[in-house]
Amino acid sequence: MHFVSVQITFERAVQKCYGEATNSKRPTTSQAADRLRNRHGHDWTVERLRRAVHQMVREKLAEKKLLARSPRRAPEDHLMKLVAAIAIADPDLSLRDIAAQLDQMGERPVRGGKKWQPSSVRDLLDEAHRFGLIRR
């Protein structure tokens, strides 16, 4: 769940509930937001944000689709192609050798570690095989 999309949807829901124009009887968007969230001055956590969104959906201030999982990101195919090219260029290289070569090239690991792990290289090689870039 992306915080920005939740915040925008939250503001739209409050405006929909209380109307676009505000007068002295209707609370402003920020006043309504303060009522629904963070009453005790706590910082937002993922769990508190989830609870607030669930409460907004229950009170029909937000759409139910906010509770659905966000779609997966498209795979980063640059690294898959690079690993496949290294494997094709020298089929005798081990997973550790390919990982060392990626480290030497300055490529960042997929999950943000400091060094490439052989298992990450294997996953990319498996993905390249599924896409038909390499044969086993």
Mean pLDDT level: 78
Question: Biggest β-sheet, characterized?
Answer: none
Total number of strands: 0
Please tell me what the overall shape is. Answer: elongated
User: What is the number of helices?
Assistant: 6
What does this structure look like?
It contains six helices and no strands. Helices cover 54% and strands 0% of the residues. It has helices at residues 3-18, 29-36, 46-58, 77-89, 95-105, 118-130. α1 packs across α2, α4 packs across α6 (118-130) and α5 (95-105) packs across α6. It has 136 residues and is mainly alpha-helical.
Show the helix and strand layout.
Layout: H1 3-18, H2 29-36, H3 46-58, H4 77-89, H5 95-105, H6 118-130
Helix pairs in contact: 1-2, 4-6, 5-6
In short:
It is built from six helices and no strands. With 136 residues, it is an all-alpha fold.
Provide keyphrases for this structure.
about 0% strand, mainly alpha, about 140 residues, 6 helices
